[in-house]
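Dear colleague,

As promised, here are the two records you asked about, laid out in our usual form so they can be pasted straight into your sheet.

NAME FIELD: protein one
SEQUENCE, THEN STRUCTURE:
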Amino acid sequence: MPRPVAAGFPESLPRRLATTTTDPQARRGRGATANPDGRFEATRREAFDDGWGAAEALPARTAVTPERARRIITRNTSPDIPFDRLINPYRGCEHGCIYCFARPNHAYLGLSPGLDFETRLFTKPDAARLLTRELSAPGYAPRTIALGTATDPYQPIEREHRLTRSLLEVLARFRHPVGIVTKSNLVTRDLDILAAMAADGLVKVAVSVTTLDPVLARRMEPRAPHPRKRLEAIRALSAAGIPVMVIVAPVIPALNDHEIEAILAEARACGAGEANHVLLRLPHELDALVSDWFAEHYPGRREHAFALVRQARGGRAYDAAFGRRMVGQGAYAELIVQRMRLAKARLGFARERVTLNAGAFAVPGAQLALF
């Protein structure tokens, strides 16, 4: 006998909705509408009204905890990603992007991929020391390090902690190539380091522009910089001689997919030389979290959006297979690929990616060992 489906909740949408926070004040200025337990927890909590009333909820504050890491460089073996090593100086991200595919990683810490992901953050204060040690190891072979692949290295707490800048200082000393991924104009704070590295072919920056609509941006990435600020960052980086890629990511069906050509045109006018895109990814808890978010902000588009996601993911919410997880498959996914290809050609984006210089790598002071 088929399971009953709640009224107004189509079969094509997730049945297990994340529990929505009862008082919107508790999530004011945040992206997630819920704080469900992680998938590894033995218990599940459910908010309910017991009739006694509740004290007024205060907005969730950001808590930052130092984490003592043993290593800072993480290795990657995915053929979908053009680098084999990466660094993330922070866990969690205060930008609060509802679509962030890194949200489920918070479950490994016993925390929620929902509000916890954007309010309970972790820093790696020894990042620069660890990087110096790892780059100095005998036999280390340099290849481009990707900085900020899971959480943004220029999220708001970087202003205080400056871990990303400290890492760039180390990379500059070692003349080591690095690719940066961010959606923050805070990256321009480090133009002094980046411009000098770019002169030697050691750095490129990818800036994520999800939408040009400030209302939509505030709803789905509430603490990330305004779209215009990101375009200004592209302009400043390009003017400083730093290669810039614009990433239309994620492309969300029925929400921002109509903006692809406009985003590319704006970014190209600001100096972006490369362009790429990523289709919405919904691993683990993210399926229910994004569904809840749609239900609150764009309920009329939810069914259509999820139908197209599933069409592009082989009938599922997510397909993690290499070669498909970034861009999907099927008619809708292929249409997005073709639109990107045609727009990039028309606007004059480079067909080949900038290759960084790994041959300049040198361990500072290593020549002294010869004497």
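NAME FIELD: protein two
SEQUENCE, THEN STRUCTURE:
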Amino acid sequence: MSAQPEYAPAPPPVPAPAAAAQLREQLRVDRRAEQWVPAFERDWAKALEDSRHSYSLTPLHDVVRTWQMRVASAPAVDAYTDSGRDESGFVALEDVLGTRQ
């Protein structure tokens, strides 16, 4: 008997070769460009360095997928924050769990 699953999950699709450049252009025209473009470029530079050391494109693909999800979810986040929901009643997790030692 084996502890291995009977099926292997399908790997996520590989981003298109120009996906990073297209994503950077999307970020540059977004209202969050001042914060997002430097963050994307920092993530991309780190992934590029990791990729050079590992001889794998996976770190670069992960950065593109992560930022694509951020861009795709931004309208939902904006709608939530614009809805006027009162977030002041929540308690900080640190207050509940205490400080870590």
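A couple of things worth noting about protein two: The helical segments are 19-29, 33-54, 58-82, 93-97. The longest helix spans residues 58-82.

Best,
R.
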